[in-house]
Amino acid sequence: MGNFTFEGQGAYTYLVYQIGENDQIDRLGLGMLTSNKIPGLLPVVYTQMNGQGYVKYNISAKISAKNFFAGAVNRKRLLGVFSGIAEALMSADDYMLDPNSILLDLNYIYADVATCDASLVCVPVISMEMAPVDISGFFKNIMFTAQFDQTENCDYVTRILNYLNSTPLFSLADFKELVDGLRREDVSQPAQPKVVKVQESVKPVVEERPVYVQEEPKVIQPVNVVKEPVNIPAPEPVSGGGASFGGFSGDIPGFEDEVGATREPVKSKGFSLFGSKKKPEKPVVEKKHLFGAKPAAKEKPAKEKPVKKKAVEEPMMGGFSIPGMENVSIPGAPVVEKAPEQKVPERKAANIPVKKQPEVVNVQPVSSYQPQQQAVKMGSGANFGNTVNLSKAGSGKTTMLSKAKKETAIKPYLVRVSNNEQVYLTKALFHIGQEPSYADYCIMDNPAISHAHADVMIEQNMVYLVDTNSTNGSYVNGRELNPNAAVQLNHGDKVTLADEEFVFYLY
Fold first, then answer.
1. Contact 272, 293 (CB under 8 A)
2. Which of 123, 354, 468, 471 is the most buried (most CB within 10 A)?
3. Which are the contacts of 265, defined by CB distance < 8 A and separation ≥ 6?
4. How far apart are CA 412 and CA 491, in angstroms?
């Protein structure tokens, strides 16, 4: 078979197949492809130029399934491509096309990133090189090599593999029905919240809490207390016309006897107001008198007037004298004789030779490097030693700092001119487009950008830009890129996607 090339014509991108010398054109199949819009197959345009025939397929705004399956593959992408492949193979029988003329190759299966629908390439050429393809094995190979998104439920993968392994005779109709059923489940049957049915016999558990019963307050019947007059016996008069009350004796006004009779004095249990203290019958603890006369104090011997002496502290151990305590005699302390005072001879200045301080010498470490220049003399005359040249220090080779920085600090990114946004290229294959589910950097505020506009590839510290069949094209420094052709980007290049401008920086 001939080779495929890409061709851009304004807003359209075509995959072009050049018919080879040994290729025999299938006229019936070519007529079916050019005259009909066959489901699952790319539309075809046939042209001739200088006796050479070309079959062109419109792949505008579509990307290859190989790029579509790069990275994590989710449910929508896989089922969309599988449904498109099955539909294309079934349509070939309906339009009397040779199934072997359909290319089952992920590089020539193109998908729409917005709808995830896939379209295949049918080459209307009769050739013996086209060998029949195992369709069931083709689907299995995709399932075994793809990396599925683990953030979603992957039960659909198990169901597809069980069907492919359990069916001895592969049926496209049954397989497509299975895939379409899974797609409908994904779209029209969102996960419903589980409803838990409660049996009628089961009663809700009520937490038992202690019940506090408030007792009725007891009613206390008031008691009628009859106040009766208390006959307080009048105090017996004491000789002298006085009265005694509560242990105190004396004339108290208001307590004189009406008749003037004399009564025997009442014995006092406590203190007497004016009389002397009565001796108690039983020995009691001596108490102080409140108002009575104090007992006669015992005569104490006259105290001698103490002689004022200076405070004496205990003598310090070790034979040291305490300042100010030289002439004080301590009773019981051993007599310490004072040593005769010795006159300290006056120190005369002696001619002691002064050692000279050693001069400070800046000793350079022993190394293979010998300085060749003297230090630059400052205006003040200060000398700061020899200047060390970094590029010659040490015995190793000179290291260029700028080169080392360039090798270790490569971090490519794009700067969007309209808003100065920095877009760091963090993947080996970085997608730029308008589709949020596909693009790594999504541009939704510019309708001129295609759903999958361009890819940035990074290989061995080299950065390339690829236009992925965009509608309005991609440009580097004003030069338009051919579709699916990788162009290397250099530091400071101007990148234009449709009418959106970027500046590329390597570090």
1. no
2. 123
3. 236, 238, 239, 244, 249
4. 9
Low-confidence ranges of the chain (pLDDT < 50): 188-189, 191, 193-194, 196, 198-202, 239-250, 255, 257-261, 266, 268, 270-273, 311-319, 360-361, 363-395, 403-408
**CB of 245 within 8 A of CB of 223?**
no
Distances (CA, A) of 403 to 169, 217, 344: 63, 97, 80
Query: Within a 10 A sphere around the Cβ of 122, how many other Cβ atoms?
Result: 28
Asked if residue 122 lies in contact with residue 101, where contact means CB atoms within 8 angstroms, the answer is: yes
> In the sheet where 441-442 sits, what is the strand order?
441-442, 429-433, 454-459, 462-467, 486-488
Place of tokens 């108690």: 280
Residues facing 455 on adjacent strands: 431, 466
Report angle CA 350, 353, 354 to the nearest 5 degrees: 115
Q: Which two tokens stand for residue 395?
A: 């015995």
Q: What is the pLDDT of residues 242-271, one digit of tens each?
A: 444 444 444 555 545 444 445 555 454 544
Phi, psi angle pair for 107, to nearest 5°: -75, -20
Which of 64, 130, 134, 59 has its CA nearest to residue 101?
130
Looking at residue 298, what DSSP letter applies? P
Cβ contact 125:33 at 8 Å = no
- For position 366, what pLDDT does the model report? 43
What predicted TM-score, i.e. pTM, was given to this entire model?
0.57
DSSP output for 180-246: HHHHHHHHH-PPPPP-----TTPPPP----PPPPPPPPPPPPPP----PPP-PPPPPEETTTEEEET
Residue positions counted in the chain: 507
Q: What ranges in 95-208 are assigned the alpha helix state H?
A: 135-145, 155-166, 172-188
Taking alpha carbons only, the member of 462, 466, 92, 192 closest to residue 452 is 466
Note whether 171 and 178 are within 8 A (CB): no
